[in-house]
Amino acid sequence: MLNDKLKYSRIYLIAVFIVLYAPIVYLMVYSFNSGGTMTGFEGFTFDHYKEVMQDTRLLIIVLNTFVIALLSAAISTIIGVFGAIAIHFMRSKSKQTLLTLNNVLIVSPDVIIGASFLILFTIVGVKLGFVSVLLSHIAFSIPIVVIMVLPKLQEMNNSLIDAARDLGASTWHVIARVVMPFIKSGIFAGFFMALTYSLDDFAVTFFVTGNGYSTLAVEIYSRARQGVSLSINALSTLIFLFTVLLVIGYYFINQRNSRLEDKGAKQ
Q: Per-domain residue ranges for the chain?
């Protein structure tokens, strides 16, 4: 009976992965199609990738996207880490309230968040463009970082902090020398999650981009509306491969941190 259940669970997982990845594989295959449509594969070519690389405007948009992603991920990680530490050491009632508010931002529809930011920036007088996109990405990335860091804080033994205080460590030294090293893997996880969310975001960014400024997600959407172009396939393939590299990089960093933590625990 157990073997039958395992067999069906494997079949189910395989079916799920096929449904999820088949469209991506289809898109990637036709990015090498020498024809101009996705209805028949006429031959192998790198012309669509060359077209992407020769598009100066697109390369500027790629640069904009990565600058926004790196800056927003770094700033939101710093704010999110200290926010998670503050929440962790709060009283139970205040902690639960802040956690609820944090989770509401995560589950709220992106369209609502984007529209809210658009209204806010319009009222305050912030010009739509680099600044508005950066602020928006920082805002929706902070709750993600908090969620990634809090479990590591909950795993930490408070006796470590008490011992550091008994030895005369200040609050800053406790955070820098005790708390930060312990939650390092959670910080990396939060940074990579914030980075990928920023790279992939469309709905919020669509509302807060101004004329003359765009990110990859918005640009791909705009080009897709104009008709089928296999350069979109090539661009989407490159983004997907970069995201895969990020995931692999995070995996190896996480594995390395786990080995170092196990080694430190044994010593």
A: 56-266
Angstrom distances, CA of residue 26 to CA of 41, 48, 221, 226, 240? 11, 15, 18, 20, 13
Residue appearing with tokens 């991506």? 24
Which pTM was predicted? 0.80
Mean pLDDT, the chain, integer: 83
Phi, psi of 33 (to 5 degrees): -80, 130
| Cβ pair 77, 145 in contact under 8 A | yes
For residue 44, list its beta bridge partners. 33
Spatial separation of the C-alpha atoms in residues 260 and 263, rounded to whole Å: 5
d(CA 232, CA 145) in angstroms, rounded, equals 31
Q: Hey, what amino acid is at 87?
A: I
Residues 149, 84 contacting (CB under 8 angstroms): yes
H helices of 54-202, where?
56-88, 92-107, 110-124, 130-155, 158-166, 171-174, 180-182, 184-200
Q: What is the mean pLDDT of residues 3-20?
A: 79
Using CA atoms, how far apart are residues 208 and 134, in angstroms rounded to an integer? 10
pLDDT given at position 2? 52
Residue 186 CA to residue 172 CA, distance in Å, equals 19
DSSP category for residue 211: T
User: Taking the mean position of all CA atoms in its chain, how far away is CA 135?
Assistant: 15
- Domain 56-266 sits in which CATH superfamily? MetI-like (1.10.3720.10)
Angle between helical axes of 130-155 and 92-107 (0-180°, round to 10): 130
Q: How far is 187 from 64, CA to CA, in rounded Å?
A: 24
Instruction: With a cut of 60, say whether residue 267 has pLDDT above it.
Output: no
